[in-house]
Amino acid sequence: MIDNRIQAFKKDIDDYLQWMIFNGYAFHTCGSYQAELNSFLLFIIRNQIDCDDIFTLDTLKNFQKNKPAAEGAAVRGLWQRLFDQKRVRHPIDPPRRRLPNIYEDYLLYYNQTRQLSSIKLARIRRVLVAFHNYLERQNIKLASIRIEQIDAFLAEFFIPFSSMSRQTYRTYLRGFLKYLHYQKITRKNLAPLVVGPRQFAKSKPPKFFRPHEIKRLFDSFNLSSFKDIRNYAMVKLAYGLGLRPDEIRLITLDDISFEKSELTLRTRKNGIPVKLPLPENIIKAIAAYIIGARPKSNHRLLFLNLVAPYRCVCTNSVGAHITVCIRKAGLPGSAYWLRHTYAQNLLEAGSSIYEIKEMMGHNTINSSENYLTIHINLMRKVIFNEKL
Hints:
By secondary structure, this protein is mainly alpha-helical. The chain has three domains: 2-84; 101-193, DNA polymerase, domain 1; 211-381, Intergrase catalytic core (hpI Integrase, Chain A), CATH 1.10.443. Helix content is 57%, strand content 3%. The chain has 17 helices and three strands. Strands 1-2-3 form a three-stranded antiparallel beta sheet, with no helix packed on it. Helix 6 (118-137) crosses helix 8, helix 10 packs across helix 13 (315-328) and helix 10 (226-240) packs parallel to helix 14. The longest helix has 21 residues, at 2-22. Mean pLDDT is 82; it is low at 378-384.
C-alpha cells in the first residue's frame, strides 16, 4: 500500500515537472524544483507521513525545518496544481472571507486597471474588510453612509497605525468611496471629505541626481543579461522622458514609432494622451530590448517578466527594477528621483513652468512646482559670476 502511494506521488512530481517544461519555465527553475520535490519525497518516506497529511502546513513547516535551504516554492506549486485538479482537498492557504459583491467588484476593477501587486491588493482588502465589519456592527447601509460615520470608523481603525500608514489607508478608502459614487450607490461623492489632519511642516524639497551621478548610474550597466537590457530601457525612459512607472508599464509595441522617432502615451495621470519625441539613445535601448531580451509572447505591452509564464510587469515592479539599478550604482534614491531629475533638467534648459507642466503630464502648475528646486547653475552664475 505504501509502495503504491509513493509511486503515485512520484508520478505527480514527474507530471508537474513536465507541465513546467511545457509552459516554458527556465531550465534552472525546473532543476531546482525537481531537487526540492525529491527531498520532499524522501522526507515523506522517512517520516512515514500518511496520504492525507502530505499537503498540510504542518508538514511543509516540518520539512523546511529539517531542510533549511528549502524555500517551499516547489512544494507549494505542486500543492496548488493538485488542488486545481481537485486531487487535494484543501488549498495552500485557507480561503479568505468573501466580501459583499460591491467590495469584490471594486477590488477586481481596481486590480484590472492598476495591475496591483499582491501585497498592495491585500492592504486594500484589509481596510475594506474592516470598513465592512464596522458598518455591519453599527447597522449602517452603504447607500446612506455619512462622513461622520466614516470619520468614526477611521478613528477606530487607525489606532495601531503610524501617520504614514494612516495616510495610505485613507487613500485606499477614498478610492472605494469614489467607486460607490460612480456606481450610483451613494448620491454624494464622499471621497474629497476624507481628509487627514493639516500638515504644517514644510514640504521636503524634490530630490534629483546631479550629472555625475547620472553618468555613474548608466556606467554601472554591463548589459550582459536579459534583465540588464530590459531595466536599462526602463531607466532610459524614466530619465530621458520623465515617465512615471505606471506610464512605462502601459507602453505597448504599437505606441512606438521607430520611423518617426515618436512615443505615444495613451494613458497619463492627467487623462490627456500625448506624443513625445524619442531621442536616439532611448530608441536604441528599446530596440536592443525588443530584439535581444524581450520574450516571445502574444502580449502587446512592451515590458514583460523574464520568467515563464511570461506576463506584463506591474507598476510596482517597474519602480522596484529601476530602484534596484540605482542602488546597484551605489546611489541613494528611488525611481521617482529620475522624474525629478527630468523636471530639473527642463528648468535648467530654460523651459517655462507651463512647458514643464505639459511635459510632465500634470493637471496644475502647483504639481509641477513640487518637482522643481533652485536653479543651481543659474544661481552660481549670478552670485559667483562663474562661467558655466
